[in-house]
Amino acid sequence: MNAKDFRTLFGVALRRQRLAFAAWIGAFCLVLAVIPNAYRNNLGSMELRRSVIEMMNSNAATRLLFGTVPQPGTVGQLVQWETGMLLLVFTAIAAILIVTTVGRRGEDDGLRELVEGTGVSRAVVFAVQAAVGTVFSLAAGFGCGFVLAVQAPLLSEISVAGSVCLGVAIALAGCAFSAIGLVASQLADDAVGARRISLVALFAAFSLRVGAVAAGWDWVQWLTPLGWKDLLEPYTADRFLLAIPAALAVLALAASAWRLYSRRELHGAYLKPANRSGSRLRAAGVFSLTLRLGRRRLLGWLVGVVATAALIGSMAGSFVTLTKKNANYSDLLSKMSGGGEATSQIVSLFSVIVGILIVCETANVISSLAETEKKGILDVELASGTSRRRVVAAQAVAGAVESAILAGAGAATGGRPARRGAGRGACSPCHPRPWRGTGLVLLLLGLFREWRPRGTCCGAGPARACRARCDGASAAPCRRSRPGCSRRRSAPGSRRRPGARPGRPPPVARTCRGRGAPRACLGRGRRRPRPRTPCRRPRGL
């Protein structure tokens, strides 16, 4: 493997993913910089903490989601119990997105073919993909551990060793799912399929951890990267040696990914997409076509939203049961929520997760405009006589409709315990009104995406005639002043061909290079004789 090629490609990959690195790691560090002080201020006394720990351990939904609260309930233990679990999940998601973007997405866009055409070996390309995921995971783990370790002198209940142990757990989970993303990139035929397989693996890992916690089988947590944090026990035992077998498991996954990568052809896949239907795709319009293309994506997001809302609803039901059995728990929840109806406020806070999922789906729908243009679907729609405004409007309406479907399904799934006593709208995921993000996503897409047209050619007809794109560099301003519209104007005094469309440039006369048959003429217009050049060689030779 050439070290120079690796350094060059690795630098390019890091430069392309620098914004994703900064966004994810910055968000993680910001959360960990605020959470410890919040625990210390709200749960200052040990008696209050014991009551909270007893209440959380008695709640089945909370225990399945975050695990058992460690004893005696220090600030560091509470941070790694709740926030640490969420950081593991989001680190896994970020690692999957980054690895599939660098790997399979680059291959779909033709970057891998371009790089290997310069003489770079396949081992270098794979090493760069694996190195980017590893560097992100290590950076996320180091950043989280560093932010917590800095707070150790200020908070006596946070130790430096526990902070480092939590950072190691986060880094191992990120590396594991980076390797899973590499394996999925070889199995699927494109980046979207690789992300779907990786997210399904993440859901399976989370379900396996939940099953291990429910059954009390600690050995099962070795089979899921999300359970390695509970085995390391940050801020409790700090078992650093258990990270060695976890690292060996990550290396085994990476070796499997390399085995699959070395035997796969360019743009190939081990899992070929099956043709589910031989019928012709029929769509009544742009809107129906948009919904038809996104139905599989909507089904996947619907399953995730319904499962999350069901979990939140079960948590609300457990809180209601606890408050009915013991009045002290009701007072405690009211104190933690800042007064008012405690159960409603706390469950509404958890329901924000559902709102975030719906907003992510809306952003995914709107941003698929760029993907449709890269795949050539947008060109087909525009060639059929559909305007760009109609395409964008159909995409926006589809995003709003899908977000409303997800919000309604989540509210119907998780809102039943709220109607039974948790408070009105406590479990409703439509509380943040996620469909309002459609306009914001459209604005950001129009500002920062590269799919926007450089200019459109408009004729003398109505606005619907403004369809075809033209080169804005040589285009003259349009007579009909329209925002963002430009077209070529014919030269003054030039004659327009009969039947030519207004606004089109006149035909350019080209030289006919052939003699005799008209098919030998490569251009249109009058025949021009080929200029004769004098021979420089003497005739005698």
Sum this structure up briefly.
Helix content is 63%, strand content 1%.
Question: What attributes characterize this protein structure?
Answer:
mainly alpha, 20 helices, two-stranded antiparallel ribbon, 541 residues, 63% helix
Question: How does this model look, in words?
Answer:
By secondary structure, the chain is an all-alpha fold. It has 20 helices and 2 strands. A two-stranded antiparallel sheet has the order 1-2. Strand 1 and strand 2 form a beta hairpin. Helix 13 packs parallel to helix 19. The protein is globular.
Write the layout of secondary structure elements.
Layout: H1 3-16, H2 18-42, H3 46-58, H4 60-66, H5 75-108, H6 111-117, H7 122-150, H8 160-187, H9 191-215, H10 228-232, H11 243-262, H12 286-293, H13 295-325, H14 327-336, H15 342-350, H16 352-375, H17 377-383, H18 388-414, H19 416-422, H20 437-448, E1 476-477, E2 486-487
Antiparallel strand pairs: 1-2
Helix pairs in contact: 1-7, 2-5, 2-7, 4-13, 5-7, 5-8, 5-9, 7-8, 7-11, 8-9, 8-11, 12-18, 13-14, 13-15, 13-16, 13-18, 13-19, 16-18, 16-20
Shape: globular
Q: Count of DSSP E strands?
A: 2
Helix content: 55-70%
Distance between the termini: 57 Å
Secondary structure class reads mainly alpha
- Strand proportion: under 5%
Radius of gyration: 30 Å
Q: In sequence order, what are the helices and strands, one letter per element?
A: HHHHHHHHHHHHHHHHHHHHEE
User: How many separate domains?
Assistant: 2
Low-confidence segments: 417-432, 449-504, 507-526
Strand order of the largest sheet: 1-2
